[in-house]
Amino acid sequence: MYDYVIVGAGSAGCVLAGRLSEDPDVRVALVEAGGADGAEQIHVPVAFGALFKGRHDWDLQTEPEPGLGGRRAYLPRGKVLGGCSSINAMVYIRGHRADYDEWAADGATGWAYDDVLPHFRRAEDNERGEDAYHGVGGPLAVSDSRSGVGLTDAFVEACLQAGHPHNHDFNGAEQLGAGRFQVTQRNGMRCSAAVAYVHPALARPNLDVILDALALRVLLDGTRAVGVEIERHGVVEQLRAEREVIVSAGAYGSPQVLMLSGIGPADELAPLGIEAAIDLPVGRGLQDHPMALLNWLTGEESLLTAATPANAELLRSEGRGPLTSNVAEAGAFLQTRAGLAGPDVELHFAPVLFCDEGLTAPHAHGYAFGPTVIKPTSRGRVTLRTADPATKPRIFHDYLATPEDRASMIAGLRLALEVAAQPALRAVAGAPLLVPESGSEQDLLAFAHRAAQTVYHPTSTCAIGSVVDSELRVLGVEGLRVVDTSVMPSALRGNTNAPAMMVAEKAAALIRAAATSAASPSAAASAPA
């Protein structure tokens, strides 16, 4: 018997486990389908691509996508302690103020920018120091890039030459502009949610981390969640939750767990033999950020030759050098048309070739960059393929399905070509390897169909207002919350790992407040949310 059972030890689940187990009077179980995070490729930043399609990757894919020319897109997701924060590119971005204010205006009470900023700051240990936007002393290390690859500087300079402002802090007062990303690293090594929140808590007697355990379903007693059924090493077990079950399996996994438990669209569950205990639009509303990278060869040094003994020693002794690269080292947030509340395109720059969804190893020195549509209007869905929990779900993003999304992608590709034409990049550019045939709308869209991929930011499949309330409690079910990017009403303008951890920081505060209220209503009145 536990007080809290958390399904999924990804970015959000690790934060919850760390925060909730700070109270010695509660017992917490953290359930993860994958194993421990000991692999060297997890902790040495530049090596994360070697984790794709391996044992630490769920290795999902979409259904055929019309907006990708009928291709199935590869969707890597972390199946390991730390989840995606153990296999991602470590970019620390929060999104735009308008994202959160839009959520609140549409009914997500308590999720405006000024409401969530304290939770970002509480999580953060930013090496630049504390200010109105940033915190120090939190579990999550945030640092500047230490890779020192010159191609990245050339990209930033080319953005400035193209007329875009320099931005030293994308998470400060203004998001627009170009610059290097901050990263979730400490001393040049990855600082995942597991490293930040779970490793320091492993010695606590009230926290059980249960690895290699597949969640089969949430156990319901009527309309109350009372535990989780798991399968570990071929044995089915039940973990009981006296207070709450918290599903933190991500924007693909959380709807899958709920639907397997009979919480979801009744008309979709019935054909699979699953009786809907609670009829909710679980899995609908999926959003993600499609990205199309252009690639050029170069005669300059790139990350192709990062893995040298000298660079290994530089990482070990000084925590810097090419092995600390997060690959997506710099970027730019751009607004392609007037009248928008914020940017609609984000450029990501990598000082190495990045083709074929990152699955083809670079063969020569090169660099890649291109636009990501960061405020999509397209919506997809996640559904069950079968009633077997071990079967991967059906995922349909419907990328680039709307005129707005296609317009942003086409305009973003034009802006990328303008940046590529600037002196700073012309000076290092060799032959183009993967670029549009021309700047015409037809050729740009054809390039997007051919080259676009996910940039790993799925959201909104258990959204506030439709599946959960503003305190992330599943509608119609007692003792059950969803805590991860699936609760976001819409996609954020930017990378989603830091927001996933913020959601969990805020949820931990809400959960503690609820527990305090149950014990003493008057004492809970002043609890922060």
Descriptive report:
The chain is 26% helix and 22% strand. It is built from 14 helices and 27 strands. Strands 1, 2, 11, 12, 13, 14 and 27 form a 7-stranded mixed beta sheet that branches. Strands 7-20-21-22-19-25 form a 6-stranded antiparallel beta sheet. The chain has a 3-stranded mixed beta sheet with strand order 5-6-8. Strand 12 and strand 13 (224-232) form a beta hairpin. It is globular and about 65 Å long. The relative contact order is 0.19. The model has no long low-confidence stretch (mean pLDDT 97).
In short:
With 529 residues, the chain is an alpha+beta fold. The chain contains 14 helices and 27 strands.
Write the SSE topology.
Elements: E1 2-7, H1 11-20, E2 28-31, H2 40-43, E3 60-61, E4 74-75, H3 97-105, H4 113-123, E5 124-126, E6 140-144, H5 150-161, E7 177-180, E8 182-183, E9 185-186, E10 189-190, H6 193-198, E11 207-210, E12 213-221, E13 224-232, E14 235-247, H7 250-260, E15 263-264, H8 266-269, E16 278-279, E17 284-286, E18 290-291, E19 294-298, H9 309-318, E20 330-334, E21 345-350, E22 366-373, E23 380-383, E24 394-396, H10 403-420, H11 423-426, E25 429-434, H12 441-451, E26 453-454, E27 480-482, H13 497-519, H14 521-524
Helix pairs in contact: 1-13, 4-13, 10-12
